[in-house]
């Protein structure tokens, strides 16, 4: 059980470490939420709390996104950010 919970701490730290600067507060909030729920679970059966499962899912997905971003080559990361900023203002379909 501690290994299961520990994996989410490690994944959250990894997501925080590799997150872009503007998304670090979100990763930190997820880590703090996980810590708070872990503390709460000391007094009650915490695995029945649905909002903790949402935090688990968000930590796992943010970790996957951060790992995928790290695995990309630097020029692919630049191209991805350039495409998002250079979208045309008007679409004619």
What is the ordering of alpha helices and beta strands? HHHH
- Average pLDDT reading: 76
Q: Over all CA atoms, what is the radius of gyration?
A: 17 Å
Multimerization state: single chain
Class of secondary structure makeup: mainly alpha
Query: Uncertain segments of ≥5 residues (pLDDT<50)?
Result: none
Kindly, what is the distance between the CA atoms of the first and last residues, rounded to a whole number of angstroms?
53 Å
Characterize the main sheet: none
**How many separate helices?**
4
Overall number of strands: 0
Binned strand content: under 5%
| Structural shape | elongated
Q: What level of helicity do the residues show?
A: over 70%
What does this structure look like?
The chain has four helices and no strands. Helix 1 runs antiparallel to helix 2, helix 1 packs across helix 3 and helix 2 packs antiparallel against helix 3. Helices cover 74% and strands 0% of the residues. By secondary structure, it is mainly α. The relative contact order is 0.13.
SSE blueprint and pairings:
Elements: H1 2-18, H2 24-41, H3 50-71, H4 74-85
Features:
93 residues, mainly alpha, 0% strand, elongated
Brief summary:
This protein is mainly α.
């Amino acid at each position: 059980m501690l290994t299961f919970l520990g994996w989410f701490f490690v994944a959250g730290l990894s997501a925080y470490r590799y997150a872009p600067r503007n998304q670090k507060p979100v990763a930190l909030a997820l880590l703090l939420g996980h810590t708070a729920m872990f503390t709460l679970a000391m007094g009650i059966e915490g695995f029945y709390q649905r909002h903790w499962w949402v935090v688990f899912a968000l930590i796992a997905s943010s970790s996957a996104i951060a790992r995928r971003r790290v695995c990309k080559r630097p020029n692919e990361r630049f191209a991805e950010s350039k495409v998002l900023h250079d979208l045309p203002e008007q679409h004619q379909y």
